Amino acid sequence: MSVRIVADSSISVPDSYLDRLKIAEVLATLHFGKESYTSKALAPDEFYRRLAAAASPPTTSQPTPQQFAEAYARLAAEGADAIVAVCVSGALSGTLNSAVLAAEHAPVPVHIWDSQHVSMAGGWQAIRAAEIAAAGADVNAILAELTQVRAQMQMYFTPANLRYLVASGRAPKLRGTLGDILNIKPVLSTIEGRLEPIAQVRSQQRALDFMLDRVAAALGNRPARVAVGHCNAPAAGAAYMAAAQARLNVVEQVVFDLGPVLAALGGPGLIGLAAYPLTA
Description:
- By secondary structure, the chain is α/β, with parallel strands linked by helices.
- 42% of the residues lie in helices and 28% in strands.
- The chain has helices spanning 15-21, 44-53, 65-77, 95-103, 120-134, 139-152, 163-168, 177-181, 204-219, 234-247, 259-266, and strands at 3-8, 24-26, 29-32, 35-38, 59-61, 82-87, 110-114, 154-158, 184-191, 194-202, 223-230, 249-257, 271-277.
- The strands form 3 sheets. A 6-stranded mixed β-sheet has the order 10-9-8-13-11-12, with helices on both faces. Strands 2-1-6-7 form a 4-stranded parallel β-sheet, sandwiched between helices.
- Strand 9 and strand 10 (194-202) form a beta hairpin.
- It is globular, with a radius of gyration of 18 Å.
């Protein structure tokens, strides 16, 4: 059986993995007023320049069922007997619903997987699914592996300011203005698929330290895949990965810009950490 993987762009699978593992990506859309762009249409420099000049944050929209249907049809035409679609948390986006609707009329069976995460916390799941699919695993084995990876995933992030995240509505328990004035930085994680603040500390550096402490406590010295995502903060992202390497047994690493759609929701300066332990 040939099983192929579909991933939506909000789980941030890097292009190198998409190409090597032949993962089909379905793109979300960014809206600056009446102008719309797919998540990869704007170069990062251009996006952040426009973001800084915008009177209000841009909005985003999920991929449509038609986009998923086209991806399913393409993979079926390439010989797939079944498809696993790995999606950003269904509690945060309608993306999962689009994937489900498209699956109803797909030419081959499609199994929808809710990563219950965002960005590379979901991306690592899609990558692992594609790896074992390429090695010949069937759908049941892939779903069993995804269950294990998702259960062990560690994901935390902290925004540089609260304006964008509060405006997005994705973290309804956050309140913005006072926290920014006092330089109080929340640490957020995904709990049952929802973004929840789990700590508030003074300064982003203390937030970053808290995140790494939590991941180190969960992973110990087990070999781990680790991703650091940032929004227009490459130096800070690289420095944070170096700190992670000093604390964790990092066997595979990714440092990446979250890109326009997620940066529109989290805002410049955001730093995130996603990691999970490898099993024998």
